[in-house]
Amino acid sequence: MLSSAEIEARLERILPVVTKPGRYTGGEYNQVVKNWKTCDETGATPLRVALVFPDIYDIGMSNLGLAILYDQINQRPDALAERAYLPWIDMEAALRKASVPLYSLETHHPLAAFDLIGFSLPYESLYTNVLNALDLAQIPLFASERTQEHPIVIAGGHATFNPEPMHAFFDAFVIGEGEEVIEEIIDCLQTCRRQGVRRAEIIRQLGRIPGVYAPQWYSDWYNADGTFFRLETLDAAAPRTIVKRMVAELPPPPTHFIVPYIDTVHNRIPIEIMRGCTRGCRFCHAGVISRPVRERPVEQILQAIEESLANTGFEEIGLLSLSSSDYTQVLELVKAVGERFGAHGTRSKQPLGVSLPSLRIESFSVDLMDALRASRHGGFTLAPEAATERMRQIINKPIATQQLLDTAREIFARGYLTLKLYFMIGHPSETLEDVQAIADLCKAALAEGRKAAGKRVEIHAGVSTFVPKPHTPFQWVACDTVEQIRAKQTLLKQELRVRNIELSWTKPEDTLLEAWLSRGDRRLATVIYNAWQNGAKFDAWQEHFNYPAWMSAFEKANLEPAFYTHRPRRIDEAFPWDHIQTGVRKKYLLQDYLQSQQGITRADCREQCFACGILPLFADLRRQHPGDAWKCPPVRPKNPLPKSI
């Protein structure tokens, strides 16, 4: 294994000849470099954690989850955390040619020298990148081939709520939120190290931590028709179900964000103002797995902004959540940000940029638009998802078309020139008439804009393709066929050849990949490995997505891709992800799915509780004393905003 000094010597020859060498140097402002050999207080060796985002630096640096864990781990006196990202094509080739393993940015130690490697998996198209990262790190890809000398390799993130397609490559998965469980994982590994525990026993003990899934202690069984039958435990101590971890109260957010040397996808301070969503959109995976809603107090958010600005020099903040305009004090917050961080709050003497990336049409108001206008907000994004009221009832997003057009008119009337509208095609029961309505709605929104602000206004229509995700009411339905997807996209391309309307869409092959990997079982691990061997990597990048490599991978594994995408699931069918408990009962999801077929909508959970299961499931998990009962953290009813449209 190369030392950090040897890696640095070889990097001196490599970095001058690759694009954007700032991706690979480390040394950024606010990075944390701790003593690699001894803890400051105890003198013992710290537990060394490598946090890996399996895509390039430009994207991974904006991942808030890793930033939270990086800050939290480095506050411990007995542990350290460093970062690693996947190198771009030219850097990968240079590393392989020079026999330089994937290394951390802080100290340039090879990843194989760490005790724990934690991957963030927010979406499925990163799977082959994980294999590429492990291979570059010179760590065996398959967990079964790792020895006592290798790091423990774990993963967390939204994509791990169906961990089975990646079960062969990880020692353990963290299901749910990481702030509390990471402390327990580090404590467990520290104890095991002091006691000289062997690798298999370490993984067994990790699997006993609530919310941690160790797949090697389970075996999969299938029916004669190839459908999943059950997951059997191979160890008496292995839990039959893995209940997601959740923090009852959001801790204070990090404020010492690392300032990158190069432009990243989001050059801003990310502040999570709320976690969870009560809307119940039936297609939304994140809305299910992040329940219940927890909000941060306004003053805590303002304090975090103030500290972050002083610590970083950024001049834009992102107020993040699944539904930022559903934050109960959103108007108060935006006004307070404008008052406290006006032109005098930045060196450039410009107002602080504020972005609210998730705005609901029905919770929008004139006052909120006016408050955002003072903060250099460049445009707005609204997500009607469907363009007919029939389809909105099916997906449980009941918004009147006139309400959307009224909102668009108010946006343009205040001087904004760009409106982004997000839609999905491929919903259950969708017809070509429903797709035509998307084009009609975009044209109608443009017309409203021209009335209010003239011919300079623009509509950007983003049309993705629906994937029936696990743990959602639509997990029983099939994906749209490629032929249907192409027909719907062709219709939109023809209808939206209109000046000042820009259309973007998702390639059908990209949708199929997401569906295979999100809805798959353990047999998909072989497909993923085969695809990587065929050259698949950077699957989320259009220029690198290798569809033939995946087709060949399925053929070699003797699996039919359509089995995972184009067949409806039986009502009584067992799912490969049933052992992962989100807190929302499968019975509730089925009831919601059946209601969708009748066009029945559910109200916002803040208005009426539908007993989804989140409260009973967590009743015993957050008790500090035997007599205490855990209950959903209180969320104030939404205040009616003045001048609501």
Please explain how this structure is put together.
The protein is globular, with a radius of gyration of 25 Å. The strands form six sheets. A six-stranded mixed β-sheet has the order 2-1-3-4-5-6. Helices cover 34% and strands 13% of the residues. The protein has helices at residues 4-14, 57-60, 64-74, 89-97, 127-136, 178-195, 199-206, 285-289, 298-312, 330-340, 366-373, 389-395, 401-413, 432-453, 482-495, 508-519, 524-533, 547-556, 562-565, 586-597, 614-617; strands spanning 47-53, 79-85, 116-120, 152-156, 172-174, 212-213, 218-222, 228-233, 242-243, 269-272, 274-275, 294-295, 316-320, 353-355, 380-385, 418-425, 458-465, 501-505, 580-581. The relative contact order is 0.10. The termini are far apart. The chain is of the alpha/beta class and 645 residues long. The protein is built from 21 helices and 19 strands. The longest helix has 22 residues, at 432-453. The protein folds into three domains: 4-243, Rossmann fold; 268-377, Transcription Regulator spoIIAA; 379-506 and 583-625, Transcription Regulator spoIIAA.
